[in-house]
Amino acid sequence: MSPAKRLRGRIAETGLVHIMAAHSPLSAILAEEAGFDGLWASGFELSALYGLADMSLISMTQHLDMLRAIAGCTTLPIVADIDTGYGNAINVIHAIREYERAGASAVVIEDKTFPKVTSLVAGGRQELLRIEEFQGKIKAAVATRRDPDFLVIARTEALIAGLGEAEALRRANAYVVAGADMILIHSKEKDPSEIESFSRAWAGLVPLVIVPNAYPDLDAQRVKALRNIHMIIYGNYGIRAAATAIQETFRRIIADGGVQKVHKDILPVEEIFRLQKMEAVKAAEARFLR
């Protein structure tokens, strides 16, 4: 069974899957051990890992390289964040071929113009494509996928752009007509009322996806009560958690004049060895290097 088929099966079985953002193979391993249903190959997190703004500065090649590395160390399905698809419908055709080969089980394509600006930044440029042009991207993605279980998820940024619920619904319905398997509805409001309102108004035939970064109070129990949201993507928590721990640890080392205190509060090196599967490597070395 392909990872894409397993992802669809998990959605059908539970009604709501939890997808954790990953920016590296190590973060993917940790997400799988924690019990998540899948991974979000996040453009935002990878941009942050490189110390760059999430403004289409990371190339498709860089993202694919990381996705392949992640796919090589996890059994979880991977939902790839491919931003605007790297160009027009022709670029989307190329992207779908490459991401499917690299191990993705799904892609999310957003209806912004290229280059995009990250959604949650204050005062950011949020320009959307014409509906017909974005429909062409979705049609191209659906027509290109080889595995029929591979999910094409259309993300509308209408609420992010301040265009209102009616426009968000209009766009979402148009993307379903184009063949989208799911609709990702995004919001930067600090409470979930905008998302809950959209969900209640949504009469489309495909389920919704949300990314509760700005509105963390919308928990799984409330999401399930809405009945048509079947995927939650935790879009930037991995890189924020990593940066929090690194900042605190590094500051303490400078303040303490050494590592004599902080070493007791971080993972022992033996735990890193375990995550690296060091015992398996040692066993292979003993077997084959004689």
| Order of secondary-structure elements | HEHEHHEHEHEHEHEHEHHH
Tell me the total number of β-strands.
8
Count of helices?
Answer: 12
The helix fraction, in percent, is: 40-55%
Cα distance spanning the termini = 38 Å
Biggest β-sheet description: 8 strands, parallel, barrel
Give the amount of beta strand, in percent: 5-15%
Instruction: Going across the biggest sheet, name each strand in turn.
Output: 1-2-3-4-5-6-7-8
The outline comes out as globular
Q: Quick check: average pLDDT?
A: 96
Rg to the nearest angstrom? 20 Å
Contiguous uncertain segments of 5+ residues: none
Class from secondary-structure proportions = alpha/beta
Keywords:
290 residues; alpha/beta; eight-stranded parallel β-barrel; globular
Give a concise summary.
The two termini are 38 Å apart. With 290 residues, this protein is α/β, with parallel strands linked by helices.
Structure characterization notes:
The model has no long low-confidence stretch (mean pLDDT about 95). The protein is globular and about 60 Å long. The chain is built from twelve helices and eight strands. Strands 1-2-3-4-5-6-7-8 form an eight-stranded parallel barrel, surrounded by ten helices. The longest helix is centred in the C-terminal third of the chain and has 20 residues, at about 235-255. It is α/β, with parallel strands linked by helices and about 290 residues long. Strand 7, helix 9 (about 220-225) and strand 8 (about 230-235) form a beta-alpha-beta unit.
